[in-house]
Structures are given as C-alpha cells and as structure tokens.
Amino acid sequence: MQNKVLIKISPPLWPIFDIEIEILKKELNQQKEVTIITCNGKKNFCIANEKMSKIKCSFCKLRLKKGINILNRKQNKIKIIDENINYKLPKNLNKIIKIKKFHDLKKIKFKGIDFGQSIASSLATQYKTENIDARKNDVLIKELFIQSLSSYYFFKDLFLKNKYHKYLIYNGRIYNYRPLLRFGQQKKLNLYCYDYHYFSHNRYLIRKLDFTQNIHLRANEIYNI
C-alpha cells in the first residue's frame, strides 16, 4: 500500500497536462506505482470539449498516450483506468435534481456532499455567468449530476478495493472532482488537490484536503509574501 498512488488528472486537452506529467514523473522517481483515472470518451459532455468534437476527443486521447509513453520509457509502473459513466446511480436521481431555478442547484447535497454547488460552479465558470436558466439547461444539469455521481462511486470503489497510500486530483472544485475531495475529507485520506500556480513562484499549487483556489488561504499567502 505504501507505494501506490491514485491520480485523477485533468482532461489532457488542457495545458496543465504538462504539469501533471511533472507530478507523475516525481511520483515514479520515488518508486511509486501510479494509477491514473481517465475519461473513456463515451460521455455526453466534457468541460474541455463543450461541443464534443471528435477531433478534439481524439487529440485528447493521443496527448495522454504520448505523455504516458514518455514516462514509461524507463519505468513501466503506470496503470490507466477508464472511468465508467452511469456507475451505480441512485434510483431517485430525477427527484434529487428536480429544480426550478439555478440558485436551487447550489443547495442540493447527496451523501453529505455538495454536488449541486460543484455543478453550479462548473456551469458558472463555463458560461461566465450565473444568469443560467435551469429549465432550459435541465438535460445538461442531469448529465453533470450523472458524471459527478459516477466519479464519486468509481473513486469510492477504488479506495475500498485498493487502499492507496496517496491520492491526487486536479483542482478539487468542479463537478467531477469536488465529490472526490469531499470523500477524501470525510475519510481523512492522504489526498491532495493541484492546480496552476496563479500568484506563486512554484510551478503549481498543491493543497492537502482543500481546494487550491481557497480564497482565504491564498489571500493569507499573498499577504505573507
């Protein structure tokens, strides 16, 4: 268990994949066995590929493959697992997500986790506004709930079966990452969120059991600098 690391990376379409390669290399250099959770390309929405372009999807998979091939030249200790969508979804899902206004989305919790807030945050970031019509976007909201819940149960099962020593997840804020952070907080796992460096001289930010974008924490850090 002491040498097993589980990481859920960002969509490789995003530039931060370069930083993730650095993180993976660092873990491998410490003789860790690394398992990566990735997309299987079969979902109906991707925050990095909003229009679900097949060309972008193919490029995303190719970029991942090339990055892993570079890391595996000297060490073959990386395992890739495709995340399943529609994974153990609750039978009362439609009742859980039945809302009339976008603001109501933020109030939805399941298993003590703020799924609704993470989805609302993702949509607001995607469309750069909170003036979103919940009824007109009900299909997308349901899709994000399905992906969020799938990510949560998939991650939970991996935890129960493998008992990894360390967990790494991108960002920890958006819809299919925050449930993993919340689960890590509940179980007090050795879990870290990483993201771009923002106002830091480091290559990237990394936080244990917290968002990298914790505004209060970042304000204190900048003040101290």
Radius of gyration: 18 Å
Quickly count the helices: 8
Main beta sheet: strand number and arrangement? 6 strands, mixed
Ends: how far apart?
38 Å
Averaging pLDDT over every residue, what do you get?
A: 90
Strand order of the largest sheet: 3-2-1-4-5-6
Beta strands, count: 6
Dominant shape: globular
Order of helices and strands: EHEHEHHHHEHEEH
Structure characterization notes:
This protein is of the alpha/beta class. The protein has eight helices and six strands. Strands 3-2-1-4-5-6 form a six-stranded mixed beta sheet, sandwiched between helices. Helix 6 (138-162) runs parallel beside helix 7 (178-187). The N and C termini lie far apart (38 Å). The model has no long low-confidence stretch (mean pLDDT 90).
Reconstruct the topology from this structure.
Elements: E1 4-8, H1 17-29, E2 33-39, H2 54-71, E3 78-83, H3 93-96, H4 102-105, H5 115-127, H6 138-162, E4 166-170, H7 178-187, E5 191-196, E6 204-208, H8 215-224
Parallel strand pairs: 1-2, 1-4, 2-3, 4-5
Antiparallel strand pairs: 5-6
